[in-house]
Amino acid sequence: MLAERAYAKINLTLDVVGRRPDGYHEVDMVMQTIDLSDLIWLERIESGLQVGSPASHIPLDHRNLAYMAAAAFLKHTRVSQGVRIWIEKQIPVAAGLAGGSADAAAVLRGMNRLFGTGLTLDELADIGAAIGSDVPFCVYGGCAVATGRGERIRRLAHPLKAWVVLVHPPVHVSTADVYGAVTPADYAARPLSPRMTEALIDADVDEINHLVRNGLQPITEQLYPEVALLRQRMANVAKVPVHMSGSGPTLYCLTPTQSAGQRLYNAFRGFAKEVYLSRFV
């Protein structure tokens, strides 16, 4: 039996740049791994796939991305044995933090270790691309520019060690509904990823906060007004910019120090139940 960490991500930029022939939207994003994580336990079994979790709000069958990843790995490698997967959830579900994709990526990495198959991260990412758009990024972790439908990854090394305070409101956001409401008027004429890349390399938190942009945020806030209300309340308390990750509803603030992050965490706990203090990985 072995354990593998599944790290959440935030979007520093998310620009929708067009519509693809396959029906997906073309995106240009800068994504960053944070240390909010699930823990995935993997154990060899004679055959088949088993998924378990103490979390009551995730499927434990073929609908679970971790299950899909395990099935895809076994098919690709032709490993004759099976695997038992146990998921300890900490990342909020349907939160814009790629929790399910992170679990799938951790299963791919972990099964590669468990069975000694020797696949590269690039090969694991290729398997993951068929499971979900965020899975390839989650296989690599760190920071990257993601294009296409999110599966084309250009990894980015930078020195910034920022802290992140996240608030997850009790709102269920449908990613399909959010993307379904995107119109050509919402397309970004010029993605911000090149400028964000420079700011990350310069470790300039003020400039990063200035550049953070999520093209889905106005759409999510129109469909789910409570997200907009929460963002405004957070901004009034924090006096720093408040951003949204993915299609939401999770909102976050960036701070350069743990002490500043702790102060925001304490302030947000005054009116929000799910608050997390995390940092870049």
From TrEMBL:
It catalyses: 4-CDP-2-C-methyl-D-erythritol + ATP = 4-CDP-2-C-methyl-D-erythritol 2-phosphate + ADP + H(+). SUPFAM superfamilies: GHMP Kinase, C-terminal domain (SSF55060), Ribosomal protein S5 domain 2-like (SSF54211). The keyword ATP-binding applies. The active site is at residues 9, 134. Keywords: ATP-binding, Isoprene biosynthesis, Kinase, Nucleotide-binding, Transferase. GO terms for molecular function: 4-(cytidine 5'-diphospho)-2-C-methyl-D-erythritol kinase activity. PANTHER family: 4-DIPHOSPHOCYTIDYL-2-C-METHYL-D-ERYTHRITOL KINASE, CHLOROPLASTIC. HAMAP family: IspE (MF_00061). This is 4-diphosphocytidyl-2-C-methyl-D-erythritol kinase. The lineage of its organism: Bacteria, Bacillati, Bacillota, Bacilli, Bacillales.
